[in-house]
Amino acid sequence: MFFLLAYFTLYNRLQSERVLIWQLPFPAGLSGTCVDGARMSTFYKVKAVMGALVPESPHGVSQFGRTEVIDNTLNPDFVRKFIVDYFFEEKQNLRFDLYDVDSKSPDLSKHDFLGQAFCTLGEIVGSPGSRLEKSLTIGAFSLNSRTGKPMPAVSNGSGLWTESLRTTGLEASGGVPGKKCGTIILSAEELSNCRDVATMQFCANKLDKKDFFGKSDPFLVFYRSNEDGTFTICHKTEVVKNTLNPVWQTFSIPVRALCNGDYDRTIKVEVYDWDRDGSHDFIGEFTTSYRELARGQSQFNIYEVVNPKKKMKKKKYVNSGTVTLLSFAVESECTFLDYIKGGTQINFTVAIDFTASNGNPSQSTSLHYMSPYQLNAYALALTAVGEIIQHYDSDKMFPALGFGAKLPPDGRVSHEFPLNGNQENPSCCGIDGILEAYHHSLRTVQLYGPTNFAPVVTHVARNAAAVQDGSQYSVLLIITDGVISDMAQTKEAIVNAAKLPMSIIIIGVGQAEFDAMVELDGDDVRISSRGKLAERDIVQFVPFRDYVDRTGNHVLSMARLARDVLAEIPDQLVSYMKAQGIRPRSPPMATARSPPQSPARTPPASPLHTHI
């Protein structure tokens, strides 16, 4: 019998932030399949466990859930799925452990550990069709002191997996360190009710008159009921002035916001008369549910507005008017995950500041200083962003540019030079390739100036303009230390880029004032050039110094940096697609291997309720 374990990794938040992972924006279902599982005994059962690991937690690994047991097969296809919440902007590590189950005991130490696989949730989501194959291997492990059986790798508390563990006795379990033990196939899909948007319209008839010198000014307030019996406001209509028979405008609301995906959950609607001083008069209320509303316009959706206090005081009280549902429709909104699953690739480009204000790279005070003991600010920022975004580009080839340096052999100043020295192809292989090219450039170019952004913005915009069918979306990361010198040209370049499939991230390193960068960010005032407003807000700026951990813990601080600069990318991508009327493509067909037929599996047990 086999037993598979999987762990979900999530970085700690600050204490002031909530850590509950089910409150995140993109819930996704994870499922798994094992092909050619390791042979341990004559008959087989496979059992998978999904768990959550908070790498900076002193508690180490915590379990997320378990699949059902499958008998007598080397190619189990698990039915039970696990709902985890997906953050594009975070590195969410997963670990899967495979066990051969020898008994009904829930204690893992009493079962044989066969192998494990590591990945991130982003790897699964970013794979073609959101389907990822990983080899199961026996890597780092320890021996159980009681049974002598190998146990899987554990976290050392720093977010890294322990590598130097004992291997004595591994042969007893049939495993060899590094040996492949089969393949695990993982897939992710977004929960359907996450994307449903309900559109509805209401009117009212014969509402109570609340104003002494006129009629009422009514509006509706919608509340979603919570698990603890309380209510949370989720929508408020506009005010219709001076009428007892208002017709409110059509409005749209995500189904999750209305009922949290529970179609029978109570929805409370309160009717008020608007007052200028904010002390709105309560007219009455009624309750309904999403399932009732979904019936559309009918006799079932005419609601009596009741004021409980009036009903208690007046025996002949009937109601304070009625509210009628005029129309109801629901449609699925396209989401970021729809486009990624449909094959949209995120093309990542990095541009690094090589101006003289960074200081001499050979001196330890320089922002470009290459210490043998730790990465500098440029490398840390690049790695934090790159290691997350890399999974959404299938070829892992990333253009890397520099600006503000004199190039050999003639000392020509360039604001758009390839870090790898290849003018025809500035792409580097993976994030490590970018770092290697960056270090090479520091040894070959002369830091100079000024700080011009427009050339690199135009460079990426030119590539983005070449493919506008929704299959590609470009993200430019600019890392800089100083005050921008070509503000007018950069604004114009950004305004032109805002109509293209691209976003720009700017990270400011060092202690300079970055007021101009805040202006480019455009959160408060949309950026403009020559009287023309940018069609979209595509720039996100953060100062690196805000994420420097004084304790030296770069793992958490860089996780926060990546989260803040990448959080807006999904919405920016979707806003471009919607503006251009581009629908997600159908997911590419997976070229799945066909495992041999195996006997029918045991039906899954009841779901295991776990808490993180």
UniProtKB/TrEMBL annotation:
<dbReference type="Pfam" id="PF00168">
    <property type="entry name" value="C2"/>
</dbReference>
<feature type="region of interest" description="Disordered">
    <location>
        <begin position="582"/>
        <end position="612"/>
    </location>
</feature>
<keyword id="KW-0677">Repeat</keyword>
<feature type="domain" description="C2">
    <location>
        <begin position="180"/>
        <end position="303"/>
    </location>
</feature>
<keyword id="KW-0479">Metal-binding</keyword>
<dbReference type="InterPro" id="IPR002035">
    <property type="entry name" value="VWF_A"/>
</dbReference>
<protein>
    <submittedName>
        <fullName>Copine 5</fullName>
    </submittedName>
</protein>
<feature type="domain" description="VWFA">
    <location>
        <begin position="347"/>
        <end position="573"/>
    </location>
</feature>
<keyword id="KW-0106">Calcium</keyword>
<dbReference type="InterPro" id="IPR010734">
    <property type="entry name" value="Copine_C"/>
</dbReference>
<dbReference type="GO" id="GO:0071277">
    <property type="term" value="P:cellular response to calcium ion"/>
</dbReference>
<feature type="domain" description="C2">
    <location>
        <begin position="1"/>
        <end position="134"/>
    </location>
</feature>
<dbReference type="GO" id="GO:0046872">
    <property type="term" value="F:metal ion binding"/>
</dbReference>
<dbReference type="InterPro" id="IPR037768">
    <property type="entry name" value="C2B_Copine"/>
</dbReference>
<dbReference type="InterPro" id="IPR036465">
    <property type="entry name" value="vWFA_dom_sf"/>
</dbReference>
<dbReference type="InterPro" id="IPR035892">
    <property type="entry name" value="C2_domain_sf"/>
</dbReference>
<dbReference type="InterPro" id="IPR045052">
    <property type="entry name" value="Copine"/>
</dbReference>
<dbReference type="GO" id="GO:0005886">
    <property type="term" value="C:plasma membrane"/>
</dbReference>
<comment type="similarity">
    <text>Belongs to the copine family.</text>
</comment>
<dbReference type="GO" id="GO:0005544">
    <property type="term" value="F:calcium-dependent phospholipid binding"/>
</dbReference>
<dbReference type="InterPro" id="IPR000008">
    <property type="entry name" value="C2_dom"/>
</dbReference>
<dbReference type="Pfam" id="PF07002">
    <property type="entry name" value="Copine"/>
</dbReference>
<feature type="compositionally biased region" description="Pro residues">
    <location>
        <begin position="596"/>
        <end position="606"/>
    </location>
</feature>
